[in-house]
Amino acid sequence: MVRTQLIAAEIISNVLSGTNLTHLLQECWRKHPTLTPQQKGAIQDFSYGVLRHYGQLEEILANLLERPLKNNRIHYLLLIGLYQLLHSKTPAYTITNQTVHASSEISKNKKFQGLVNAVLRNFIRRKETLLATAAGKATSRYSHPQWWINKLRQQYPQHYESILSADNKHPPLTLRVNLRKISVPDYRQLLVEHGMESQSIGPQALLLNNPVAVQKIPGFNDGLVSVQDAGAQWAAILLDVQPGMHVLDACAAPGGKSTHILELADVSLTILDNDPARLEQVEQNLERLQLQAKQMICGNASKPDTWWNGKPFDRILADVPCSASGVVCRHPDIKWLRRKNDLKQFAASQQSILNALWKILARNGKLLYVTCSVFHEENKFQIEQFVQQHPDAHMLPLSESIAPDGQLLPNRQHDGFFYALLQKF
Fold it and tell me: Least C-beta-crowded within 10 Å: which of 269, 297, 335, 344?
């Protein structure tokens, strides 16, 4: 446990210095090939847990220290200890002893060992008071940056607290049933036979009551199902693809929406992304599901002149890069890595992609604009501006099964997404 605490403390430190958590974990597995599955699980739990509750943990630690620590590794080690004391079933004395031991690996200075011991034992004694104090400050009560809280409060005065709460929950595990291979009722019965209970929360979406590792999902390797958030599953459905259509999935990696399109209809699908490594993931998903795209292109969605063959597309899925503010429960580092000014940069990039893709959409064709964001700057405002600037763009109504304005807010069943379906006249 000491080793996992030390590794997680280093990861958390690097995230808060500006590095993506997923990248750091992948580097960690390469750097430490002897880690057991249990150790990897602990490192992930500590890293995700501390970042999920970072605002609260920071406030608690500040109230336990007389002055800020100069040793960052000890600081983040203490955050891990506090997280464990709040969210782990491990006995408090064991957590305290392990954290003290870990601190001795960071520094031989015994004053740090004494400090760690005193801070954690003080927290145990004063837990309820410290939690109440932390709840009195917005950044620690919601564990989000103040600018983020302010923006959600302004844009969603009735829902901002539920959004912030959903961001701090563990993400649901949802499956997408491959209707080319099995029906939803039949697959649900297969789950029952494997002792797994599920809820039907969409046309092809089954929410597992108890999440399991991917390798334990029945029929996954055989392509019966894919892991895909229920909110994300609406993309292929709303795109309204029909057999024989010429379809583009722009910014497609890692391919969840691409494969869903091919499951729904026999179309001529072009898959586009600007990251060759992520396109390899798309290939793997296609192979597992035994599906085939017409072509796969590594290219920039905002510069179709560099890759487009001149034939207009009947359907375009524009799943554009965004702040990812709707998927914070899966990526808690996002809320600490994003800055308020990032929204302007994302909006400019989104507008550039949207304008470029519109030019290669066929007359009467449809373009589905998608983000995994909850901020209006990337969603509602973006589409309003686009429609005003393009007289040939008409906004179509969406399915009654999702929000009328296209904004899905994160909750216990799905992540946050925005959808806008545009038709070209």
Answer: 344
